[in-house]
Each structure stands twice: as C-alpha cells, then as structure tokens.
Amino acid sequence: METHRRSSTNSVRSHKPARPIALEDDSTKASDALPLPLYLTNAVFFTLFFSAVYFLLCRWREKIRSSTPLHVVTFSEIVAILASVASFIYLLGFFGIDFVQSLVLRPSADVWATEDDEVESEVLLRNEDARHVTCGQALDRSIRSLQPPAPIVTAEKVFDEMPVTVMTEEDEEIIRSVVSGMTPSYSLESKLGDCKRAAAIRREALQRITGKSLSGLPLDGFDYESILGQCCEMPVGYVQIPVGIAGPLLLNGREYSVPMATTEGCLVASTNRGCKAIHLSGGATSVLLRDGMTRAPVVRFDTAKRAADLKLYLEDPENFETLACVFNRSSRFARLQSIKCAIAGKNLYLRFSCFTGDAMGMNMVSKGVQNVLDFLQTDFPDMDVIGISGNFCSDKKPASVNWIEGRGKSVVCEAIINGDVVRKVLKTSVESLVELNMLKNLTGSAMAGALGGFNAHASNIVTAVYIATGQDPAQNVESSHCITMMEAVNGGKDLHVSVTMPSIEVGTVGGGTRLASQSACLNLLGVKGASKESPGANSILLATIVAGAVLAGELSLMSALAAGQLVKSHMKYNRSSKDVSKVSS
Ligand code: ADP
C-alpha cells in the first residue's frame, strides 16, 4: 500500500496528485469571484476614482474660466462622473463599513472599570464583574458581531445528515477495506504514514459502518501527529470545549489569569468573582506541604510471615539508601521519598512515594517501582508480583490513603477577605458564610460520610483547569479532595478562608501538556514545560494556582448560597431561556 503523504480532503473529481495547502486556503472568500487578484482590483478602482475626479476638476476649472455653465456636461464628463461614483461606492463598500463598525463596536478595555457597586438589587452574577452583560457575553463583541452566526447543529440534524467527506479514489479503496474488515482501523496511521489522512479515512469508515453522521465533530484544525503514541489512539476528530478566563488571581504577590475549560455556565464568572474578592482583599497565600507521586504494587507470598519479612525489610532505614538508588535510575528527576506498606494476609501492598520534577509522574514512578521489584526478586525469590498497581496508590478512585497521606502535591491556600468586600462583592455577610460553611461543608459532608469532600465545588474548578492545561481529568477524583474552612477574624469584621488540598496531581511536562492548546494555557500561567531554574518549580506553581482558583470558586459559590441567589442565577444564566419558559409553563 502506498504510504506517501496526501491531503485527505482532495476531490475525487480532480484526480490530481495531492497539493500541500495551508488550512486557510480551504476557505472560499468573496474576493475569489473577482477576475483579478484583490490588490489589483483595488488598484484599478483607486486609479479610476482619482483619474475621474482629477479629470472633472480640470474640466470644471476650464468651464469657470470660460464662463460655461457647470450643468452643461459633455459625454466624457458624464462617463467621468459615473466612473467616480462607481469607484467611490466600491471603495466605500470595501474599506468603509469595516472601519465604521470597528469604531462603533470597539469593546471596553477594562472590564472591571465600569463597575457600579451601588446597584445592590441586581442578580448576583450579573453584578459580580460589572460588565453589564450576561455570562458569556463578556467577549470581544466586535469580533462576534462582524461574523455571521454559526450554524446550530442539533442532535437530530447530526443523525439525519449523511456523510459528506470527499476522498480520492485511493482513499475510497482504503475506506472500503476498513469497512469490510480487511484493514484494521488501528493500523491506518502506520500504513499511511499520515495521521490526518488516517483519521479522515477512519472517520469516513466509521460513518459508513454505523450509518451515523459525525458532521458536528470537527476533523480539520488539529495536529494528529502530536497525539500519536502518547495521547489518543484511533482518532476520528476532536471535541471542542470553550476556555474561559478567571482572574486576575492574586496569589503569593503575583497575578495569574486562570484558564478554565468548561461547558458549565456561570462557573468561570463565579470563579472570577471569587478572584476579585481575593484581589480586593490583598491576595491569597498558598504553601506546598508535600510533593510526592505514589504507586503501590501488590505482591503475594506463600505465608503472611514472608509478607511481613518484606515489610520489615522495606521499612528498615538502613535499606532505604540502596532501594532509593535502584528506584532513582528510572529518571534523572525521580527521587524516592518513602515506602509505606500495608499487609492483607499474605499479600503486601508497597506504597512508593517519589518526587517527579515537573512531571505529574505516574510513568516515572511506575518505572522506578519496576526497578525495585526486579531488585527485590533476588532476596525474595518467593515474591509473586501480582500487579504493579494494587490500588493502595490510589489513582483515580476516592481513597482515604490519599486524603490522609497525600498524593502529588499537598497544598494549603488562605486569604483574609475584608468585611466590606464580603458585603459589596460577595453580597453576603461574614457571619452567614461562617455559619453556612460549618453546616454545609463540615457537618453536612460528615453526615453524608464524605471522603475528602468537605467543600462546596472544588472539583468544578479542578476539572476545568485540568482540561485547559492538559492534566489528566480523571485524576479530578482525588485532586478535588479539599476541606474548606471559614472563620470570622479581626473581631468578627473579616473572613479567614482556606482550602486544604492533599492530593493535587499536576505536571507541566508529559501527557496532554505537550498539545498546542493545552500548552498555550500553561504558557499563559507562566508554567509551560520544565522549569529551567529548578526542576519541579513549574508543576508546584501550577498546583498552588489550582488551589488558589479553588479558593476563589469556594468563596463565590458559598456566597451565592448564603445570599440565596444560586438557583435564581443559574436559572437565568446557566439555562437557556427556552428551558426556563418550559419550567415556568
Ligand atoms: P509522567 O511521568 O507524568 O507520566 P512522562 O513520563 O510522560 O510523565 O514525562 C516525563 C518525561 O519528561 C520524562 O522522560 C522526563 O525525563 C522528562 N522531563 C524533562 N524535564 C523534566 C522535568 N523538569 N521534570 C520532570 N520530567 C522532566
């Protein structure tokens, strides 16, 4: 099979060899209809306009000198008048409308500057950043209003439409082969040597096999080479998630604009309001308490006694140095910190914890663990390794071990919110917040038997930031463990608020952090890639930002609840008006 690269969108009709084209070239412009290139057409009309006007002015000067009435015009003058009017209309249409619209629709430069703190009675989230627009409207209005409305793709429409992808004859042959089962779908990338073409062919085959259209799922505009062998197998497109910005978050004396990828209305606006309350109160402080990724294999012996022998061996400080040397060979960044063991009969769970630099570290720690297990096999030949992960780690599952011992980065973040800010920005009182926190986040969660869930919605912020910055969103389970504390301070005037998060699992290298969009979001926070000054500094900073954003989110949601405005705000800004009317009817 041919393996040369080819654009997957070549037309069947042309049968011409593929021509590498830029993505922008795919879009048809109105100017394509002109007989001449755009710059030549513009030049022609400019010349025509100024020549005609010059000619008319010369003629009128002669007429004035010879006392000929101006309204008596010759044929050449009529032609000149028509030419100048026509070219004027062309030039106005081309340059004039965009210019006028850009003046009329230019957005405000400072979204916080137009705040009107006096209007207390307005709905909470409309007031919170005083943009005087509803959630989602605080965007560049000039850009949006100049573009035609995007077609709305409804679920029914997606399923009604038939596939429309146009392929070459050779592509068509491969599609038929995939549909018939002759060519495995997973082998397309290696067979074609072109990831984009492989995705297009797989997508088309899938549509034919299932009879369902994927027309709402974009294919173009994504670098499929960048995910090969590391992020996603058998791609057929990509899902678009909007990214909003909350901030500036003033944390440890520096400002951060926090990217949040979410489809939950009001989440970004609410976090933004929390950021504002923190900023106006002098900022938040966050401290890293612990930094260690964990992996816990399960090994089995014939007797519990032998399992206990290994436990004692691993926990003997004299053996630690040797084990650390073996473990650390996995990477120049890996540093073994501890091994904690738990026995269940003759089975032993070994929880290795290690520093992993700027990587989230699951691969790194797993490699280190494998090194140690291989090493131990010499002294403990009767050790049967059942699994490199025995769930005592514990990854992507709620578990007390993470809540108590920590996993990844353990961070505490605090702020003292000025009483006036609580009233004016958060629209509630210190007293109400403290009471609600006690009864909801502490007592309510205890009544529910919560595990690490002593908070209002930490996982909302964690997940949105994780998706935006290329973290593993499945780790939101333990990364969202959080206890939110609120206390009245300074004689009851101000509010002390803190979030304690023992297992924030983040990295700035590896995994999804390398992808273009996610990398751009990391760049925005100033934590892209490996830290040049000190390995691990970027991922630690990212963890503290996550905690700071959670603090902001907790403040804002708790305030909305305390003020009794949550349902009202969400019905107004998080549901379409259609749904609201349905509810009311
Ligand atoms: P993870 O362990 O989070 O799954 P990967 O193993 O995919 O991450 O990525 C970590 C890789 O990045 C390792 O190969 C490591 O050597 C490299 N690396 C480069 N710079 C750093 C750094 N500052 N900290 C950690 N790893 C780094």
Automatic annotation (TrEMBL):
Which controlled-vocabulary keywords does the entry list? Endoplasmic reticulum, Glycoprotein, Isoprene biosynthesis, Membrane, NADP, Oxidoreductase, Transmembrane, Transmembrane helix
Q: Is this entry keyworded 4Fe-4S? A: no
Membrane spanning stretches: 36-57, 78-97
**Which PROSITE patterns does this chain map to?**
HMG_COA_REDUCTASE_1, HMG_COA_REDUCTASE_2, HMG_COA_REDUCTASE_3, HMG_COA_REDUCTASE_4
- What enzyme class is recorded for this protein? oxidoreductase
One biological process term from GO is:
coenzyme A metabolic process
Its catalytic activity? Answer: (R)-mevalonate + 2 NADP(+) + CoA = (3S)-3-hydroxy-3-methylglutaryl-CoA + 2 NADPH + 2 H(+)
Task: Give GO terms: molecular function aspect only.
Answer: hydroxymethylglutaryl-CoA reductase (NADPH) activity
**Has keyword Cell division?**
no
Q: Which domain of life is it from?
A: Eukaryota
Its chief place of residence is: endoplasmic reticulum
What membrane topology is annotated for this entry? Multi-pass membrane protein
Which pathway does the database say it acts in?
A: Metabolic intermediate biosynthesis; (R)-mevalonate biosynthesis; (R)-mevalonate from acetyl-CoA: step 3/3
What's a GO cellular component annotated to this UniProt protein?
peroxisomal membrane
- Which Enzyme Commission numbers does its entry carry? 1.1.1.34
Location of this chain's protein in the cell? Endoplasmic reticulum membrane
Q: Which family does it belong to?
A: Belongs to the HMG-CoA reductase family.
Instruction: From the Swiss-Prot or TrEMBL record, give the protein name.
Output: 3-hydroxy-3-methylglutaryl coenzyme A reductase
Question: Which organism does this record belong to?
Answer: Gossypium hirsutum (Upland cotton)
